[in-house]
Design a protein that fits this description.
The complex is a heterodimer of chains A (115) and B (111). Chain A has 115 residues and is mainly β. Chain A is built from no helices and eleven strands. The radius of gyration of chain A is 13 Å and the shape is globular. Chain B is mostly beta strands. Chain B has no helices and eleven strands. The chains are: A mainly beta (115), B mainly beta (111). At the A-B interface, strand 4, strand 5, strand 9 and strand 10 of A face strand 4, strand 5, strand 9 and strand 10 of B.
């Protein structure tokens, strides 16, 4: 039972490079989202999706793009990496409003360093 | 503008005693409140939640209390065990599965 799988676990980028953080879930969840965790600030929502083909911005969307072509996958793209994007990134999924469950299931995280 | 706040960065408790973690919020539109536990190099794992229309929810050693008039919730762990040592995040749900997190409290259980 894999749950939410994120790849890679670690990444070092140079300023200006682009990359895609991968996220996949095997629980057939409608909702998926991306958060970043910085010291002393908890987790902040970057982008989220309520179903295939539907995405929206969270609290800190600048510098990131997302798309949701399938229920299972929700990749996060960094367009031109900046040192301020050094962070730990978490992908999460949840069943959606219909089932009423509020909990989100998180992946193990991607630690990104931009130099 | 922090909508969810955990004012204690750290808490140290003796094994077997009660641990109480606190959380304050400002937005009355949150419909659920959740507690997550996080170990180093792992993702947050769900512990317990409470609907905004309830004032208490229990699950084994974990109890969450919600005081809507004070916009305050707390997580009680009793008895505390060494495996409870982790960072605890309070989160509030804001529609369409948007979670707003507090800064976290590092709980250390001493033998």
């Amino acid at each position: 039972n894999a749950g939410v799988t994120q790849t890679p676990k670690f990444q070092v980028l140079k300023t200006g490079q682009s990359m895609t953080l991968q996220c996949a879930q095997d629980m057939n969840h409608e909702y998926m989202s991306w958060y970043r965790q910085d010291p002393g600030m908890g987790l902040r929502l970057i982008h989220y999706s309520v179903g295939a083909g539907i995405t929206d911005q969270g609290e800190v969307p600048n510098g990131y793009n997302v798309s949701r072509s399938t229920t299972e996958d929700f990749p996060l793209r960094l367009l031109s990496a900046a040192p301020s994007q050094t962070s730990v990134y978490f992908c999460a999924s949840s069943p959606g409003q219909v089932l009423g469950s509020p909990e989100a299931f998180f992946g193990q995280g991607t630690r990104l360093t931009v130099v | 503008d922090q909508q969810v706040k955990q004012n204690s960065p750290s808490l140290s408790v003796q094994e077997g005693r009660i641990s109480i973690l606190n959380c304050d919020y400002t937005n009355s539109m949150f419909d659920y409140f959740l507690w997550y536990k996080k170990y180093p190099a792992e993702g947050p794992t769900f512990l317990i939640s409470i609907s905004s229309i309830k004032d208490k929810n229990e699950d084994g050693r974990f109890t969450v209390f919600l005081n809507k008039s004070a916009k305050h919730l707390s997580l009680h762990i009793v008895p505390s065990q060494p495996g409870d040592s982790a960072v605890y995040f309070c989160a509030a749900r804001q529609g369409a599965q948007k979670l707003v997190f507090g800064q976290g409290t590092r709980l250390t259980i001493n033998p």
